[in-house]
Amino acid sequence: MGKNKNNKRPYYSNNNNNNRPSKSPKKHHPSSNISNPKTSSPSQPQQQQQQPKKRPTFSSYLDTPNLPPKVKLLCEIIATTQSNSIDASLTDTGIRVTQADVEQVLKLSYSFPGPSVKFFRWCGHQLNDDHSPYAWNLVVDLLGKNSLFDAMWDAVKSMKRERLLSLATFASIFSSYVIAERVQDAVLTFEVMEQYGIPRDVVALNSLLSAICRDGKTINAVEFLHAAQDRIRPDMDTYAILLEGWENESNVVRARKTFDDMLFDIGWDPNNVPAYDSFLTTLIKAGPDEFDEALKLFHTLREKGCYPGLKFFKVALEACSKKRDARGAAMLWDVMLRDRDRGVAFHVSPDLEMYSCVITLFCTCGDTDTAKKLLDEMVLNGIFPNSKIYNVLFQFMLKSKRLRDATVVFNEMVKNEFVPDCANCALAVRSYLNSTEYVMAIKIWKCMIENYDSDLEETGNRLVVELRDMNRLPEAVKYAEDMIARRIKVSSSTLSKLREGLNKARKTLVYDELFRKWKYH
């Protein structure tokens, strides 16, 4: 696009001669109307002169496995060929492209806007200019994300003539301007949408606000909403977008104000789950005082027949875990499951991460009974424990000396193809030996040496010595020999105790053979 002497956005001017996207279409291919990004500089309206951020990191074909050979070759040509040689290089391949090929190549070529546009034009000749709307939107997006706004608007102009424009096109433009620190241009784009046949309604408004909030500029989004709400009435999604923005920016004060505005404007609504979710999460993350405020609001929501979503429960349970507040976690858990099963307008079910959190919390607080009940409950709900959950429960069963329950957990764990971590194995061997349950101690030791190669020496020596002390000399010798064969160090102290036991049992030859193996390994 050429420069505008009046310093107005070309697509915003009332002068048809200056409004470049309104020019009559040329007679050649639509894609040829896109100006060359290499020679087209981004527009610089007077409203904003901020320097753009560092260019985003784009996906590359080099990072994408299992690409079709054709797509990979086309991406490689775009990435390694000068723009003025692209056409010839592409033609030399003899490749015939489909709409899907064009889309896939463009998605992986954002880092090369000039060659990508040349590729798009070249494909247009093969496809009789029948590019998909998605491919056009990708061109608009890759140009915008590279701050090549003149070329981007050329593409929009061509899309308008082809009747391919949609809200998705403008959502991309909003995002590109905001990322480039040109929020005012995003707003001006919203103001002229109707000139391009796209309704300037609440859905479009929410698309603009979302782009602004995603970039950490929620205050700008709120300011624009205040200016626009006389023309466009905000809906639930509008406030959910703003509240999520404040959540991401950890701004409790402004989140409260937006929440109050929402209640005044649209009241309580059971369908407004994302808004409640974000606001309650913002409160919980802010600190202990706000946590109490969040719980009070949660109960108010329930009274109104409204509920937050899964995110709130996750964050709230994590907060309870950090505070070791088993009582608070139990209340939230009970409400979550009871209200869900009552059939109210609430459809949150705990996931694996949440079960892990509460099981760990109850174990930490010494309530292994509740933790075990939760383990059984999650299986009934179709969620299966992972290694972390089993290890936590196994560890605390051992520490609380509930060895029978620990054995049940261990057997279930192994049955489901998990094993205790090395530290838990060591703890288990020690715990079972202290209770003279040598059979389980040996079982854990076998599990340990089958799955771990280090940190075995202390536990192995303990097992051998304790077996000797329990008058299980044959087993003690057996596992000492096995340790030697596995090159796990048998200490001289352990060997000395075995010698005492074997001499007392008049089995000197057994000791001599054991010593010989020990000496030469």
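The above is record 1. Record 2 follows with the same two-line structure.
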Amino acid sequence: MAQTEPGTAERDLIIRVRQAGLWEMPAGDWARTRARDQHVKDVGMTLMVDHGRLDVATRALAQRRGVTLPDQPTADQQRWLAEMRDAPSPAEFERVFVNRLRAAHGVIFGIIAQVRANTRDDEIRAFAASANQVVLRHITLLESTGLVDYTQLPEPVSGTASASAGAALDLAATDILATVVLAALLCGATVLVLWLIRHPAKRRRPGEKHVPASET
């Protein structure tokens, strides 16, 4: 069965995940040999192995869906690798390694999450979910080193997602209010119908006078 071409956002995700692996795999490999802290070495090893596995899945998906993938890091990624390569000491290497990768993972994490939440493509959704788990684990591992400089990370932004969420909450509140009012009206109508059934009005014949209840 032929696969349809992915949409722009889905195609961009596949390319970005591949692009991330092109520099994060060698960075993780360097961490194994150049870091002084064993925990940083272990983090580097995990990143290298995870991205290797994810890269296999990415290339297979790209081949099925007709997406052309990059084969080398971007100019920025090459610059980040150069910073690690030229670090004058193991301590400086660890600092650059952790902070560069933490910042990059934060960017791709948001992109993956957006596609995962909104795509209508089942295969892309499954791929995004898998990639999302990998990236979140890497963020957690990088932060566990204690070397992340959080002041250098970009401020969280409140964009269309937040606005949409607020609108959804407003809509939900309106719907709830309307439901409550409708339920109250239906309840009142039901009570009235039951009362009328239990207390049927007596029909008077023509010429018959109404006798008050006190006179009966």
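The CA atoms of residues 87 and 93 lie 5 Å apart.
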